[in-house]
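Hi support team,

I submitted a single chain yesterday and got back a structure, but I'm not sure I'm reading the token output correctly. Could someone confirm the output below corresponds to the sequence I sent? I've pasted both exactly as they appear in my results page.

Thanks,
R.
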Amino acid sequence: MVNQRKFNNKPLKMKELKIEDIKKVLILGSGTLGLRVGLQAAISGYDVCIYDLTDEILTSTKTIQGKLLKSLARNGIIDATTLQGVMPRISYTTDPEIAAQNTDFVNESVTEDITIKQKVWKQFGALCPQHTVFTTNTSYLLPSMFAEYSGRPERFCAFHFHDVFVANVVDIMPHSGTAQWVVDLLFDVGRKLRQTPVLIKKESPGYIFNYILMHVLTSSGSLLANEIGTIHDIDKSWMGNFKTPVGPFGMLDQIGLDTAWHVTKNLNTSDSQEFASVLKTYIDQGKLGIKTGKGFYDYPNPAYQQEGFVS
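Hi R., thanks for writing in. Yes, this is the structure output for that exact sequence:
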């Protein structure tokens, strides 16, 4: 086992952490979800370090977080006193060794690619203190696929967020080797981060909500691929029947078409493979959704938000 201290040829039993032991949180990957988890951790009083590959990415992250904070304050979700104290608690770095220093808790949100995640966990498993608890925000992969790469699989668990500020559910999905105290700790951390913790009793791709959602999205993609309905009509059908402000393709733009493609291309159903092909044509054009300003819709002010889209 990597990075396991030994005494008299026996692995040392490391301290079981309690909620009060968590002081510094490290976020690996500052994409759409990572930057929100980091921001919520800072709002909740944690010292936060956000790690990513380039200064340009981190500069963009800081800008987006500033805008999110103003929006939260404007909508009365946080008060002025809380607002002023948030950003000073967040640091940003491209240096893995600096990122790992004195870290108590890690949440990883890097690209949904098993090889990349394994590499990241091998790197940070060797750098982080021995007491650190490791969590992954993976959407569809399983924690057992890379827990061993951390060197401390018993301290490793999936801790998956959704939107953080609007859809405030966090999924806790242990693998077979996750220690029970880690699961208990994550319930406490989830509540402190103002989320609703949900336990996934055994490993399952997509947890609960994402499992349901992916069936909806891949079915919608299959309808489009087989020319049964247009993007607008499929979304109108969903929005009109469920009275929601967004349909399947609008949701995909929010998720990110690249993220959806990484998931669908690895699913072995005809619907998912058909949809993966559709997504790839958009990705090849640089259309990744809201984050690039173009996806199935153009942003800002997409068609599905316009008056009369659903009569």
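A quick pointer for reading it: Residues 55-74 form the longest helix (20 residues). Let us know if anything else looks off.

Best,
Support desk
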